[in-house]
UniProtKB/TrEMBL annotation:
This is Tripartite tricarboxylate transporter TctB family protein. It holds the Pfam family TctB. Keywords: Membrane, Transmembrane, Transmembrane helix. The chain crosses the membrane at residues 17-36, 48-70, 90-115, 127-145. Residues 20-154 form the DUF1468 domain. It comes from Sinorhizobium numidicum. The keyword Mitochondrion does not apply. It comes from the Bacteria.
Length: 163
């Protein structure tokens, strides 16, 4: 060790990613506050109304934004692993496929495809197995919501085959 160097006095640089996240959190909170301000006349006979929960969420987001900014300036976040874009692409592809196929193939098949591609993104390599498993699980979810709870979910050829 050379004279005059102190490893504990090493200065950390601000974490730019944390500061960007803090700014996004603050922007979302500001958007929620703006939206809640338009609901101010809707409180009924009590102080709790349709603006209560969004207001509480916006306040929590402000606290998280401040906390994240402080930690980002101090550089106290642990070292992050390098981002792997392959899994993200699989999951985004599943979401895009579900949105594009929902009205034509129905809830069960479109969401089963989302299930399989998300499983692939998380490392499950057997699409030939996860696709039918996802479709069966999603069909039971469709049964619960569409038939038992009487909610409107898009029906496709699989749902029409049984109902």
């Amino acid at each position: 060790m050379t004279k005059g160097t102190n490893p504990s006095a090493e200065t950390r640089r601000p974490d730019r990613a944390a500061l960007i996240i803090a700014a996004v959190l603050a922007a979302i909170a500001g958007l929620i506050f703006w939206d809640v301000s338009r609901l101010s006349g809707l409180a009924g006979y009590s102080q709790i109304g349709p603006m209560t929960v969004p207001y509480a969420i916006a306040c929590c987001l402000v606290v998280l934004a401040i906390w994240t900014a402080i930690e980002g300036v101090r550089g106290d976040f642990s070292e992050r692993e390098e981002q792997q874009f392959g899994p993200v692409v699989w999951i985004v592809a599943g979401l895009a496929a579900q949105m594009l196929l929902l009205n034509t193939l129905g809830f069960s098949i479109a969401t089963g495809i989302l299930f399989a591609l998300t499983a692939r993104g998380f490392g499950k390599r057997k699409l030939w197995l996860s696709l039918p498993v996802g479709i069966v699980i999603c069909f039971f979810v469709w049964l619960i919501f569409a038939k038992l709870l009487q909610l409107s979910l898009p029906a496709g050829p699989l749902e029409r085959l049984f109902f």
